[in-house]
Specification:
Elements (H helix, E strand, L loop, with lengths): L3 H18 L9 H11 L10 H12 L7 E5 L5 H14 L7 E6 L2 H14 L5 E5 L2 H10 L8 E6 L6 H10 L3 E10 L1 H5 L1 H8 L10 E8 L11 E9 L2
Helix pairs in contact: 1-5, 2-4, 2-5, 3-4
Bound molecules: S-adenosylmethionine.
Length: about 240
């Protein structure tokens, strides 16, 4: 029997074929069109992408920041659907010729990372989105060592890999000093499969103690709750102190 990982990889390869089978004129260099094509496809196939109703919540959190965001960290790339959307949002906020816009996105599987890179090229946002293969925590430390991601230089971190890593990877961001006052932290699927330790931490405002990063946090339901239990919650947190 095919393992869960194999199904997700097979679906990722199928979605690449689907995108390349569509009229390319409408998709090439159009990140929103690619995002929407992927979202539409995901209604009929099993894809673990960040869907439109949830993206609307995140987009609102990004577009209402006091200073428009430029640098985003994403934990969990898969087919690059959300990474393409982040790039589209950054471009909308800053215009097509802005410099210094970056989405660093982490993916442990080389196979799906290749699909993501391909779709990112179709969307024309490869100058903004950098897909880094390996465990997210190791990749992030390396980016900081290389000076690509700077202290207080992260405007938004998006957690969408495996929920058991959300809290430790959030704390890694804190330990590396990456947040500033006003940074947003967004997490998907905090209800199912769920990240109770992550939620408890943010609802308590963070680690506590002198010199710690402090948060305010809010849980959003992306759709009315249905009979069929499916992941629905997006957690949007704001850094209110980053000493
Ligand atoms: C829910 S999917 C990401 C979906 C993506 N954000 C989107 O909307 O298209 C989660 C991905 O995280 C990857 N992943 C899981 N644990 C990881 C880790 N520790 N480091 C990097 N990637 C990880 C998985 O291989 C999977 O492709």
């Amino acid at each position: 029997m095919a393992s869960e990982d194999n199904i997700l990889q097979t679906n990722a390869l199928a979605v690449r074929e689907y995108i390349h089978s569509q009229p390319q004129d409408a998709l090439l260099n159009n990140p929103w069109a690619v995002y929407q094509a992927l979202d539409l496809y995901s209604r009929t196939a099993r894809l673990m992408n960040f869907k439109q109703a949830k993206l609307n919540i995140a987009q609102d959190a990004l577009t209402t920041m006091e200073t428009a965001p430029k640098v985003i960290l994403e934990f969990g790339t898969y087919i690059g659907c959300s990474a393409i959307a982040w790039a589209a949002i950054l471009r909308d906020l800053h215009g097509p010729f802005a410099e210094g816009l970056h989405v660093y996105t982490f993916e442990v599987s080389e196979t799906v990372a290749e699909v993501a890179r391909d779709l990112i090229r179709v969307a024309g946002v490869e100058d903004i989105v950098h897909v880094i293969v390996g465990p997210a925590s190791e990749s992030l430390k390396q980016l900081v060592e290389e000076g690509k991601v700077k202290v207080k230089g992260v405007d938004m971190a998006f957690f969408d890999h495996w929920e058991k890593f959300y809290l430790s990877d959030l704390q890694l961001c804190e330990d590396l000093g990456l947040f500033h006052e006003g940074s947003r932290v967004i997490a998907d699927n905090t209800d199912i499969p769920g990240a109770p330790d992550y939620l408890e931490y943010l609802r308590a405002g963070g680690r506590g103690g002198e010199g710690s990063v402090r948060y305010e946090t809010e849980s959003f339901q992306s759709e009315p709750v249905s009979e069929r239990r499916k992941p629905n919650m997006v957690e949007v947190s704001t850094v209110v102190a980053a000493p």
